[in-house]
Amino acid sequence: MTEPATPAPDRDISEALCQQVANAHRTRAPLRIVGGDTRDFYGRPVEGIDLDIREHSGIVSYDPVELIVTVRAGTRLDTLEAALDAEQQRLPFEPPRFGTRSTIGGAVATGLSGPRRPWAGATRDFVLGTRVITQEGKRLRFGGEVMKNVAGYDVSRLMVGAQGTLGVLADISFKVLPKPAATHSLRLDDIAIDKALSLLATLGREPLPITAAAWHENALLLRLEGGESSVKATRDRLGGEPLAPAFWDALRDHRLDFFTLDDGETLWRASLPPNTPPLAPDVGLATLYDWAGSQRWIKTRDGEALRHACQKVGGHATCFTPAARGGAPSPFTPLDPVLEKYHKRLKAELDTHGIFNPGRLYAGL
Fold first, then answer.
1. Architecture of domain 14-178
2. Are 188 and 222 in contact (CB under 8 A)?
3. Which residues form the FAD-binding PCMH-type domain (predicted)?
4. 257-319 adopts what CATH topology?
5. pTM of the model
6. Which tens digits make up the pLDDT trace of 326-340?
7. What is the CATH number of domain 182-252?
8. What are the two backbone dihedrals, phi and then psi, of residue 12, each rounded to the nearest 5 degrees?
9. Could you give the CA distance from residue 41 to residue 263 in angstroms, rounded to a whole number?
């Protein structure tokens, strides 16, 4: 695990960042946007001058009553979460950290969400607005209290998951939610995956306080969150053995033993429609089911076979292993011609000279 870093002080360096971006735009010099670098494995390698946002940190404003917080992009996730925790609130989308240096800007740029995603919502669902440094080195606000459109695009949502390819996130405003009154995690042993998926489909049709559901090695793992009476009633109904709450943090941040790879293995995330049965056994060496089966972490030695199997059932697969990026067109599912055309048009509109994290998502974007 990455060694803890001293949190940067409350500081606004957006003017200096704007100047760096403006210079890069003028000279057409590519930039590699750098925060905590804990998610550098996610996407294609980027060659460029480092644009370090870590010192652009601190909570700009926080209104616990209105459930709104605005934070600078270089702020460490643990710093923000500690401030929210003091008010018994949290980021509902449970962003993965992958290390102690993780920043909120990186969490939004990658758009990844934790085990709570199917029940609470995705990262983009809680982004109210952003302040973005554009290619000309200007600071523009989108969403929130002030709305400015660029060619009709919802820029705040576009920035989520764009991997910094469309501009530099400076500030982000979030909707936060209170922590639940009660929480309980449980483990149901000796339950095969077919039975587990059937049970999850049944439970999903009821108003139960489930906020995480995983399966691995014949065990169904559930988290209940909500009112005390609701959590107790569901816990009594399902039974099972208590599960340490830390399991969900370890799953979110890939700290479980499952995520240790042997030589030749690569880790893939399969995103599949709800209630999809298990994939063909020959495409994966081991599978950990998350999001009630809609997200599956699969270890394999044949990523292309896995990707093909996911596409056949209406899903897609993404490679999470840095070593597997070399020589591959992209760790992400290839774009069809129509989508590729729109991606290129958007990139040309917001990043004319291709200076922002060029090639991070796909070659030429």
1. 2-Layer Sandwich (3.30)
2. yes
3. 1-179
4. Alpha-Beta Plaits (3.30.70)
5. 0.90
6. 445 679 999 999 999
7. 3.30.70
8. -110, 110
9. 18
